[in-house]
Design goal:
The chain has about 325 residues and is α/β, with parallel strands linked by helices. It folds into two domains: about 1-120, NAD(P)-binding Rossmann-like Domain (Rossmann fold, 3-Layer(aba) Sandwich); about 125-300, Rossmann fold (3-Layer(aba) Sandwich), CATH 3.40.50.720. The protein is about 30% helix and about 15% strand. The protein has eleven helices and twelve strands. It has helices spanning about 30-40, 55-65, 85, 105-115, 125-140, 145-150, 155-160, 180-185, 215-220, 240-245, 265-270, and strands at about 1-5, 25-30, 45-50, 70-75, 95, 115-120, 170-175, 195-200, 225, 250-255, 275-280, 300. The strands form two sheets. It has a six-stranded mixed beta sheet, sandwiched between helices. A six-stranded parallel beta sheet has the order 8-7-9-10-11-12. The longest helix has 17 residues, at about 125-140. It is globular. One of its GO terms (biological process) is oxidative photosynthetic carbon pathway. This is D-isomer specific 2-hydroxyacid dehydrogenase NAD-binding domain-containing protein. It comes from Dipteronia dyeriana.
Length: about 325
């Protein structure tokens, strides 16, 4: 895990050979899969607490009971870490984010309280890059749509199925050439794709064509893969104008944050056939996904799991 430069360092130490009641108490906020993947490695070092998720009142009551002992908070996925939660945890020393992004954490409040904030950094960049390519292949080659077609028993009745598009020759625009974007860029040339990108600034030592804004990148691309950080400046950066510039055959893949795309405009553009398809692992109001997308065969949906593999815990060091 990597430390945010915006926060002070807290002194939380992994301990060995101590009594269970003396282990540091860690609050794991959301996602049971975390317990499955990490408990075997952590239970000798920490006491793990999981708040109930059935109602805000039950969470508040749970945190109030354990507040004095909780020294670390693990925020899984995009779980919000705001002042309302922090107010209930006076003994807290560190906030650990399981994702590379920390946009869901109220950094100014953590800074004020002297809390250390860490993120996954580039620990999972290769896994997310693999998933991005998988989403793109699925959308272009209609893999999931074909799977549904066969499982529904439609092959004997209808025979042929609409063909997909090849990856060879596709111009892929990467929005955010950070750790994840760079890993994506390494993979796609093997499929015959060319790469261009936009970022906050041009990267030194990078030969891919650079575009100063996402609109111009979209106009020169067949595919946009969105993997940058969510900030006030990047929120809804993929708007209607960008989608129109991408064009009717264009595909958008998003493994960054849902709010990087104007989701309402994306839905309408897909329904009107103004873009060719989308592969989405993130959404603007998770876990809620626009229902209009469910019946579209040119859209592939997953539940914010690009980072998740059975090997996940091996990437983490304690």
């Amino acid at each position: 895990m990597h430390k945010s430069p915006h926060t002070k360092k807290a002194k939380t130490r992994i301990t060995k050979n101590v009594r269970a009641q003396d282990l540091p108490v860690v609050l794991v906020h959301r996602l049971p899969a975390f317990n499955l993947l990490f408990k075997s490695r952590l239970h000798n070092h920490f006491t793990l607490l999981h708040p109930p998720l059935d109602s805000p009142d039950s969470v508040h009551s749970f945190l109030s009971r354990h507040a004095a002992s909780i020294r670390a908070l693990v925020a899984v996925g995009s779980t919000p870490v705001k002042s309302q939660i922090l107010d209930l945890l006076p003994a807290l020393e560190i906030v650990v984010c399981s994702s590379a992004g920390i946009d869901h954490v109220e950094l100014s409040e953590c800074r004020r309280r002297g809390l250390l904030v860490t993120s996954a950094g580039n620990a999972f960049s290769e896994d997310v890059a693999d998933y991005s390519v998988a989403l793109l292949i699925d959308v272009l080659r209609r893999v999931s749509a074909g799977n549904r077609f066969v499982r529904a028993g439609l092959w004997p009745q209808h025979g042929s199925y609409p063909l997909g598009s090849t990856l060879v020759g596709k111009r892929v625009g990467i929005v955010g050439l950070g750790s994840i974007g760079s890993e994506i860029a390494k993979r796609l040339p093997a499929f015959g794709c060319s790469i261009a990108y936009t970022s906050r600034k041009k990267k030194s030592g990078v030969s891919y064509p650079f575009f100063e804004n996402v609109h111009d990148l979209a106009a020169d691309s067949n595919v946009l893969i969105v993997c940058c950080a969510l900030t006030n400046q990047t929120r809804h950066m993929i708007n209607k104008d960008v989608m129109m510039a991408l064009g009717k055959k264009g595909v958008i893949v998003n493994v960054g944050r849902g709010a990087l795309i104007d989701e309402k405009e994306l839905v309408q553009s897909l329904l009107r056939g103004e873009i060719g398809g989308a592969g989405l692992d993130v959404y603007e109001n998770e876990p809620h996904v626009p229902e209009e997308l469910f019946k579209l065969d040119n859209v592939v949906l997953s539940r914010h799991v690009a980072v998740m593999t059975l090997n996940l815990s091996k990437h983490c060091r304690m």
